[in-house]
Amino acid sequence: MKVLAAMSGGVDSAVAAARAVEAGHDVVGVHLALSRMPGTLRTGSRGCCTIEDSMDAQRAANIIGIPYYVWDFSERFKLDVVDDFIAEYSAGRTPNPCMRCNERIKFAALLEKALDLGFDAVCTGHYAAIVTDEDGNRELHRASAWAKDQSYVLGVLTAEQLAHAMFPLGATPSKAEVRAEAAARGLSVANKPDSHDICFIPDGDTRGWLAERVGTATGDIVDREGNRLGTHEGAHAYTVGQRKGLNVGYPSPDGRPRFVLEVRPKENTVVVGPREALDIAEIAGSRYTWAGMAPADPTTPFACEVQIRAHADPVPAVASVTGGELVIRPDVPLNGVAPGQTAVVYVGTRVLGQTTIDRTVSAVPV
């Protein structure tokens, strides 16, 4: 097959590209220039699209012996990921930019261009597995080592995208083994730190970054009954489950800490309350997709597991499509779930689908 290897400049994508070559594929490496500031250098282990990363990817491609190109996707990245991130926060939701990047950049824009150029598949260094069922349908599954499993952030992939996806690291037992393999291959990225956090906010100060772009506006912090407890400088700076930096002038009657329960951007109001009020009995979203074949009748409730963060434990649940929404009811309440987050649904190790959470139902009503 003719394979386009997406090379971030990290060790995982480099080893994935090398394995694709060893498997006999005709491989071309490509680095996506996503930053609108191409001179930016990596700070610590943050980020994944700096000029330094591009050079690391080129060095790896040279050693592997494959052609290498840099494609400028910065404008698409700004529109589909960065601007979406700002809009979601401004609407009081908690977005996951890595999900959007995988959905709209790596497996939409990149795959579309790859297919137009005659490639058969896009190869990445994600830790996930693709399994073909007895009818020839491709399914997305967890990686063999759950500690490094990245199937959650790939839950947005559709059946068509899975048909052209390749994850050579899916069966690798550990990241240490990948690093050892990279070192044996002479790849200089063997000991390069993993990227983390949000790549376009290199200093990790999400609140400050948003304030520069959205601005600040004084608003009220209230309890669940609407009583004013304090003020804030912008509702966009708060997320559900947050405890620190609430600026509440006096303690709760029972002395227990308060947490952000809800963000109301239209009113510029932040609602706070006790930890137990964060327990969620139901989540639902209308923007849902299936990773491969959909259930035969998704309107009939089915048993599954739901995961709401990349590193969260899956929770047993019952799901169904009702009234145009994928509605998920966990067997035990989920804690601190916010609209805008992504709920990924599993059946065993298989990723069945996902939805962006539009609404939640508290297990502790007012």
From TrEMBL:
Q: Where is the active site?
A: C101 (nucleophile), C199 (cysteine persulfide intermediate)
Q: Primary place of residence?
A: cytoplasm
Q: Which Pfam families match?
A: tRNA_Me_trans (PF03054), tRNA_Me_trans_C (PF20258), tRNA_Me_trans_M (PF20259)
One molecular function GO term is: tRNA binding
Query: Would I find DNA repair among this entry's keywords?
Result: no
**Localization of this protein:** Cytoplasm
| E.C. code | 2.8.1.13
Q: Is Nucleotide-binding tagged as a keyword?
A: yes
Residues noted as binding ATP in the record, renumbered to the chain: A6, M7, S8, G9, G10, V11, D12, S13, L32, G125
Catalysed reaction(s) here are: S-sulfanyl-L-cysteinyl-[protein] + uridine(34) in tRNA + AH2 + ATP = 2-thiouridine(34) in tRNA + L-cysteinyl-[protein] + A + AMP + diphosphate + H(+)
Q: What keywords is this UniProt entry annotated with? A: ATP-binding, Cytoplasm, Disulfide bond, Nucleotide-binding, RNA-binding, Transferase, tRNA processing, tRNA-binding
Site feature (Interaction with tRNA) residues: H126, Q341
Q: In this protein, which residues make up the domain named tRNA-specific 2-thiouridylase MnmA-like C-terminal? A: 285-357
State the residue spans of region: Interaction with tRNA.
148-150
- Family, per entry: Belongs to the MnmA/TRMU family.
Q: What is this protein called?
A: tRNA-specific 2-thiouridylase MnmA
What does the record give as the organism's lineage?
Bacteria, Bacillati, Actinomycetota, Actinomycetes, Micrococcales
